[in-house]
Amino acid sequence: MDQGPGLRYQPFYCEENAWWLCADPALGPGARHVVFLVSRAGRCPLLHQRAAAPGRLIAWDYHVVVVDGQGRVWDQDSRLPLPSPGITWLDETFALADRLPAIYAPRLRVISAEAFRASFASDRRHMRDRRGRFQHPPPPWPAIGEGMNLVHYLDPAAPRPGLVFDLAAARRWLVDLASE
Prior knowledge:
Number of helices: 5
Structural class: alpha+beta
CATH topology: C8orf32 fold
CATH class: Alpha Beta
Largest sheet: 6 strands, antiparallel
Number of strands: 8
Low-confidence stretches: none
Number of domains: 1
Mean pLDDT: 94
Radius of gyration: 15 Å
Strand content: 15-25%
Helix content: 10-25%
Order of helices and strands: HEEEEEEHEHHEH
CATH superfamily: Protein N-terminal glutamine amidohydrolase, alpha beta roll
């Protein structure tokens, strides 16, 4: 399924959508980054996600977006424009973050698109129930890489891969990207 002209997209497979998206020429020139949205609670509340009713939070176990060289966020699961200016996306998506318990505070793990595409692997086991059935239909493309290393991206306390930002640091990073 496509979301936008020519973009690969499968609902509930944001990490795979990002893997394809970060190599897409539609993102324009400049360095690209993959951003994992996580929290210490193992649930990251976001607004404006199509899987939730308008105006309602959804708490994903994690979510993945791509940031292009102009500091724009490509969130294929958002109701916000695709792409959105990074600061606008950050402010709108996390507008209620300061009202939530600290354990739900978002952490943004930022990895270069090049490093992500070279190292990420998912055999999709995390999308299967106890009986081995998919909880949501898988994408039509083959699984990415060999094995499974998704867990390495999800722990906000782990020092790598990439860098982990809180909202204030993510804001500064996005401002810097947009001004380059």
